[in-house]
Fold this sequence. Notes:
Layout lengths: L28 E12 L2 H8 L8 H14 L1 H4 L10 E9 L4 E12 L4 H19 L7 E11 L6 E2 L4
Antiparallel strand pairs: 1-3, 1-4, 2-3, 4-5
Amino acid sequence: MAKSDTGKLTHLGADGAANMVDVGAKDDTVREAVAEGFVTMTRETLDTILAGNAKKGDVISAARIAGIMAAKKTHELVPLCHPLLLTKVSVEIEAQPELPGLRVEALARLSGKTGVEMEALTAASVACLTIYDMAKAIDKGMEIGPIRLLSKTGGKSGTWTRGAP
């Protein structure tokens, strides 16, 4: 859970009950977040996906669409998230032969009062789950993860980048 300037968790009331944070007084700023996820699989599974020969169809296109749709529904899936008017969501999926597997990168952007980290993370997660779903008949041993935030910009806390000092 997020922490306030006082170091207290922002989604917990004085009595410990979970509640949605009031962002009404915050300024609108352009906010962007980028997350990534990985699906590791056998080389044969990766080759089948890349050749477009999965029985369920085009795995990468379906995963991209699923990730975009998921970002738009994050507030319906994560209980204390605000519904947001996203201005941009993109999901890029690239082969990682050295895994072997696929890397998903999701970007979410808006101009608003609260961040879009959860939307980017949800997009990456659901895209990875869709890859698994569409290829599980070939390879039930696929692994998903890590799924992680790479960067976020905007808002009072400014810019954060994974690995930056």
